[in-house]
Amino acid sequence: KNEVEQSPQNLTAQEGEFITINCSYSVGISALHWLQQHPGGGIVSLFMLSSGKKKHGRLIATINIQEKHSSLHITASHPRDSAVYICAVGFADGSEKLVFGKGTKLTVNP
Amino acid sequence: DTGVSQNPRHKITKRGQNVTFRCDPISEHNRLYWYRQTLGQGPEFLTYFQNEAQLEKSRLLSDRFSAERPKGSFSTLEIQRTEQGDSAMYLCASSLRGVYGYTFGSGTRLTVV
To answer: Could you read off the pLDDT of B4-33 as tens digits, one per residue?
Structure first.
């Protein structure tokens, strides 16, 4: 069964802290996305990974294909990073749909 | 291009009424997807079009739901005889490269009262 698990569900941090959000999945994938969703619903794509590591500003995303695991890191967190972060996976089953985790609600306090 | 556009942003309807949502994808994207997101959950796949052909439908898409993409451009999602359980955020996304490059719209939030 194609499943995506995220942890933690909720995360509260102080401004400046290093944040890690984890995502694990059940079977082989074509692509893994990290997405950001603010109140109001709009989803913004942060990263698409098939292997390795990507960095954009203070955000870093890594994926370990053998362990079926990905992490999203935020360095020097800021209150504006407060949002829901969602992992979504395109499984290598020929389908074009994404299977989403339940999301991690991040609150960064000043 | 202004990205993926969804209208309306919010819709409140009475139980039993029909509603229709519209999605305008990025113009060069031939793939269009509909997802539904309930409170506290990640989005769930509903259906997918490549050009005007509806290629995949979820079991979540009951017979009260219908989606069209008549000319391979914009798409509509209609819900007939709405129920309170249909209250959710309906998200549209488009892509040129399948799972390798999704762009999401801002969603339509449906409230059935």
So the answer is: 999 999 999 999 999 999 999 999 999 999
Residue A93's pLDDT band (cuts 50, 70, 90) = confident
The shortest CB-CB distance from B107 to any of A41, A88, A101 is to A41
B39 touches chain A (CB under 8 A): no
Task: Report the residue of chain B nearest A48, measured CA to CA.
Answer: B100
Residues B12 and A72: their CA atoms lie apart, in Å, by: 36
- Answer whether B56 touches A (CB < 8 Å): yes
Q: CA–CA separation, B70 vs A97, rounded Å?
A: 21
Instruction: Let me know if A82 is exposed, middle or buried by CB neighbors in 10 A (0-12, 13-18, 19+).
Output: middle
Distance from CA of A18 to the nearest CA of B (A): 24
Alpha-carbon gap, residue A69 to A20, rounded angstroms: 13
Q: Which residue has the higher pLDDT, B111 or B1?
A: B111
Residue B85 DSSP SS3: helix
Check pLDDT > 90 for residue A31: yes
Beta pairing class for A4-7 and A19-25 = antiparallel
DSSP structure class, residue A69: E
pLDDT recorded at residue A83: 97
